[in-house]
Each structure stands twice: as C-alpha cells, then as structure tokens.
Design goal:
Length: 376
C-alpha cells in the first residue's frame, strides 16, 4: 500500500465528514487507506462515520488522549509506505496526494524527512504557518513582537526566505498536513506523547532535522485548513500552550534562567494575543451566490443568485457576498483555486454537502467555523 491518511478527530463531526469526502476523492488513483481516530467525541462523529463511511477504519478511544498519542495509535494501524497526518478541519484537492508523492524534489529522496504543502484558510488566504523556522528564543521574540512584519531580516519564524509560491527547504511544518515515510515516523518515535498538544508538530519536525533529514514545503497544491474550528482558545488553551512551548524548549535547548524567563513571558504574551483574536468575525451577508449545475433549494434568508460556471464570476460589488459551492457540481480543486483567485474582504465561501444537507465553512483563520443545517 502506498499511502495511509491518518485523521484524528475530536468533536468536529461535520468538518470530519467533509474532510473524509475530499480524501476519498484524492485517493481514487492511489493504493491508499483512511484511518480515523476519535478521541472520545461527545458529538455523533463515530455514528456518522459508521453510517456514511463503513469502509473507513475507525478507532474509538475511550478518552481524549491528546494529539500525539491519538496520531501514534493511528499510525500503528497504518499499512502504507507513506503516511499523511491530516487535521479533520481540512479539505484536500483531488490531486494533492498524487502531486506530492510523484514530485521530483531537488534533493535526494533519501534525504527528505517531512513534506508539507500550501495551506489556506476558509477565505482563501495563505496561512503563513505552512512553513516555519525553529522557534529559538530570538526567532520567538521576532514573532511575539511582530518584527517579522517589518523586514525579512526578522522573517525566520515564517520561513520568509521562501514566498508562499516557492517550494523549498524549511525547518518546521504544521501538523495539520504532514507527509512522510511511515518507517521514518516510527524511527524518530512519532509524536512525543509527553506533549498533549500544540508543540507536537514543531517537535516532530525538529526530530527529523536532528536525524539529518530535510523538511520540504511544496507549494504546488493547496489544502483548506479552517483552523479555528479544531481549537477553542480559552483559559485551558492558554495553559496548555504555555506548557507545550516549555516542553519543547526544555527538551531541545540548554536550560538557563534567562531563557526560561524569556520563554515564560513570551508564551504568556503569545497566548494572550491568541485569546484576544477570538472576536466575532461574522459578517452580515447581503447576497448569496450559489454555484451549482442543478437547482438547489437551500432556503436561505437573503437574495440568491444561481450560477453554473465558476469562470463566469465577476465581483463588481461592495456588498458582502457569500459564495456557496455545490460539491457535487465542482471538484474540490476547482473550489480551492477559485477561493485563492477571488479572495477579497467582501467575499466569504462555504461548501454545500448534499450527503447530509448542510453548508459548512469559516470566515477567518481564527473563526470557529459555521455549520448551517438545511431544513427541507
């Protein structure tokens, strides 16, 4: 088997359904499998999986074991030569896995550690954490105090030696999408289970570097990562984030009083910034545009325009428009490319999932996401 896609879920039933639908399409020409690990969700994630995806391997944990252990459990069941660690609040294009597995990187295959790709949020905007540098004290300082926005001299945190449209070597990749050989994952010990969440992807990327491997950012395919849906940024989040950063630094860097003091202040500041970013990002929608090759009765409350071709769209309005894609009419690749090409402040995007009759999406990378259940 060529590829095992590992999806760890916790209470994001609707995002999980959309994710698995997209992965199934992306595996049509690949000898692959999907493994979903559920960390004791209280919603109906597991019953949904059993009903809609009976052929997908489902592992039901009896408690929330955290991101590292949950993924390690999934990888232990994997059969693929390669694995992809994938968040449930993502959507992959139909050719994402084929492009990455068939790519001819400019470094020997034996030297490649982990491969990531371009991630966008629910509005089509590039997510800079798609590629990062090692967050040493200085690099963390430039991030916390926004110096990376001033000059590329301070741009190591987001690996600004590469643009979003340049593939190349990077140090750190994000755990929402990571591809690597299964044997290599096991060689470096997988995710460190001493870290519950938040610095696990940094740690895994760094472990790959310590093994002499090269991590690689691949820009030629894009994946939607709604991002805000999978994490509630509350006091528990702040506490775990601080613990996670302390875990990484204590594990990999020499301990010192000055270093510990800086990281404690930095983790608190960064956590407060994250918490303060959770403002309401909901926009008042003036009009819906539905792209579909069939007549859809979605019973939405505002003016609706129906279009059957993505290429016909021209945005000449200052009104807030929500575009809804019928995923039965267009491929995820077409939808993703449209979002990237047409991103602007007065457009938001949602997908219509006819299997379960709901609309899903997110208006911001820190937005919790929105689910609209369609009532017939």
């Amino acid at each position: 088997m060529q590829l095992s896609v590992i999806i760890l879920n916790y209470n994001v039933r609707y995002f999980l359904e959309q994710c698995v639908l997209s992965v199934q399409k992306a595996l049509e020409n690949i000898d692959g499998e999907i493994i979903v690990i559920d960390n004791n969700s209280s919603d109906d994630s597991c019953s949904m999986m059993k009903e809609l995806f009976p052929n997908v391997k489902l592992i039901e944990n009896k408690e929330n074991l955290g991101f590292p252990k949950g993924n390690n459990i999934g990888v232990a069941q994997a059969k693929g030569e390669y694995i992809c660690i994938l968040n449930p609040d993502t959507v992959v294009a139909e050719d994402t896995f084929e492009k990455i597995l068939n790519s001819k990187f400019q470094i020997p295959n034996s030297e490649i550690g982990i491969v990531g790709c371009k991630l966008i949020d629910g509005t089509g905007k590039f997510l800079p954490e798609s590629k990062r540098g090692i967050p040493t004290p200085w690099v963390a300082f430039t991030k916390i105090f926004g110096l990376y926005k001033v000059s590329n001299l301070f741009g190591k945190y987001y690996a600004q030696h590469l643009t979003e449209n340049q593939s190349g070597k990077v140090e750190i990749l994000v755990g929402a999408f990571m591809v690597m050989k299964r044997d290599f994952y096991n060689e470096i010990g997988g995710f460190d289970e001493n870290c519950f969440m938040y610095s696990d992807d940094i740690d895994l990327s760094y472990m790959a570097l310590k093994k002499g491997k090269t991590n690689y950012y691949f820009h030629e395919t894009s994946v939607i990562h709604y991002k805000g849906e999978s994490t509630i940024r509350d006091e528990k989040y702040m506490k775990r984030f601080q613990e996670a950063m302390q875990f990484f630094y204590k594990k990999h860097f020499k301990k010192s009083i000055i270093f510990d003091f800086f990281m404690k202040i930095g983790a608190i500041l960064f956590s407060l910034i994250k918490k303060n970013q959770t403002q309401n990002t909901t926009k008042q929608i003036d009009e819906y545009i539905i792209f579909s090759n069939q007549e859809l009765q979605l019973n939405l409350t505002k003016k609706i325009r129906l279009l059957n071709e993505l290429s016909n769209f021209k945005n000449n309005s200052n009104s807030n428009i929500e575009i809804i894609f019928d995923t039965k009419s267009f491929s995820y690749k077409e939808i993703i490319n449209f979002m990237i090409s047409n991103k602007c402040k007065n457009l938001t995007f949602k997908n219509y999932i006819s299997n379960s009759n709901y609309i899903i999406g997110s208006n911001n990378s820190i937005d919790r996401g929105e689910i609209i259940i369609i009532k017939n």
